[in-house]
Amino acid sequence: MVLAAGRGERMRPLTDQVPKPLLPVRGKPLIVYHLEKLARLGVRHAVINLAWHGEQIRAALGDGARWQLQIHYSDEGGEALETGGGIFQALPWLGPEPFLVVNADVFTEFDFGALQIAPEALAQLLLVANPMHHPQGDFALVDGRVQQQGGARWTYAGIGLYRPELFAGCNPGRFPLLPLLRRAMAAGRLHGQVFEGAWNDVGSIERLAALQ
User: Fold this and answer.
1) Which tens digit of pLDDT belongs to each residue from 70-89?
2) Whose CA is closest to 112, among 42, 200, 191, 184?
């Protein structure tokens, strides 16, 4: 699943008329890099959630055939459902096995196929060194398990493997993902790994310009 429903407030005015996933990086829309990488890995089905200017994303990407993908669109209407609600709405397309989730607005050389989830884990998060705009990080990683404290802190890269069971007890609607991750963390079932290669959170005009 590629998360593409956000408003992109910090990228305004660029995102007033164009959704952030379609902003060009080195001559190509951000989201297309992900689709190309998924196709190279042999992925054949992808879900993309839509909200802000979602019709533009649908028009630009079509059914995904040019990447040998079958794209399913999860339309969230006028207001995005946040990460938790957005993934929950898409679960019928994602199936019973662990599935990959990628933020459309990250740019990275990470090989998605390098993510592996243990049988006991509800999620496997990719963590990266804290960028300048987020120096405190998000989580610690101790013996492969993601914790709130207890070691060096890392930033969640916006890339992870999730089991549908992570969303047990959820109801349709708008809700964040973090409380579900904390619930899995408390049970010792939130795992992670560190990636030290190129990764960029394209979250501001300045960061987009630097990436270009």
Assistant:
1) 999 999 987 889 999 999 99
2) 42
Tell me the C-alpha to C-alpha distance, in Å, between residue 126 and each of 8, 23, 56, 94, 109.
Answer: 22, 24, 29, 20, 13
Amino acid residing at 87:
I
Domain count, the chain: 1
Q: Is the pTM of this model over 0.90?
A: yes
Q: Which amino acid is present at 191?
A: H
Segments forming the whole domain that contains residue 173: 2-211
Alpha-carbon distance 154 to 75, whole Å?
A: 32
130: β partners: none
The domain that contains 111 carries what CATH number?
Answer: 3.90.550.10
For residue 87, which of 197, 12, 166 has the smallest C-alpha distance? 166
